[in-house]
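User: I've been trying to design a sequence by hand for this structure and keep getting stuck. Would you show me what you'd pick, starting by listing the structure so we're on the same page?

Assistant: Good idea, let's start from the same input. This is the structure you sent:
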């Protein structure tokens, strides 16, 4: 896994100008590629059978979550619904009773909670131990405002392992 570093450019932040690592997203594999990968791991099922199951899974999880049913995939985690409420909430119990639920909710998000069991831990520190981490690039962002008011962001990538600290003259 390659980590890039990006500088905090928010001058109002206490962490202004400090550098933070982030995972460089290179690509995501398709359902077909994942099915092929699974099939190559000694599965009794061929790629097309695995792909069919994964496609059905991608239809069924949103359907169940939309009904308020969480879906737990053992060893992976749980998909569940979470309501995003309107900005100010509702004032009291009577307001709740008199409000259409659809008007009290701004949106419904599908959330994922990784499983935290001993052997299949997909959470923060334990998962980090399974990752092979290397530095990638410094990602320096330059923002310029065009005449029409839109902001253009330009990324300059410099390999971290090629960085040479500037020398100071006495």
């Amino acid at each position: 896994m390659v980590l890039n570093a990006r500088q905090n450019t928010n001058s109002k932040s206490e962490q202004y100008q400090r550098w933070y690592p982030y995972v460089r997203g290179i690509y995501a594999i398709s359902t077909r590629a994942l099915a092929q990968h699974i099939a190559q791991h000694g599965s009794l099922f061929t790629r097309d059978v695995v792909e069919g199951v994964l496609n059905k899974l991608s239809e069924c999880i949103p359907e169940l979550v939309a009904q308020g049913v969480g879906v737990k995939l053992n060893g992976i985690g749980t998909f569940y619904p979470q309501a995003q409420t309107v900005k100010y909430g509702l004032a009291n119990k009577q307001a709740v009773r008199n409000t259409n639920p659809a008007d009290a909710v701004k949106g419904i998000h599908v959330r994922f909670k990784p499983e935290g069991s001993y052997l299949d831990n997909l959470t923060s520190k334990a998962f980090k131990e399974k990752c092979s981490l290397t530095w990638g690039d410094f990602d320096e962002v330059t923002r310029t405002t065009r005449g029409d008011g839109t902001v253009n962001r330009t990324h300059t990538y410099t390999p971290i392992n090629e960085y040479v600290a500037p020398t100071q003259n006495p």
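That's my pick for every position. To get oriented when you compare it with your attempt: Residues 94 and 100 are 12 Å apart (CA to CA). Residues 47-66 form the longest helix (20 residues).
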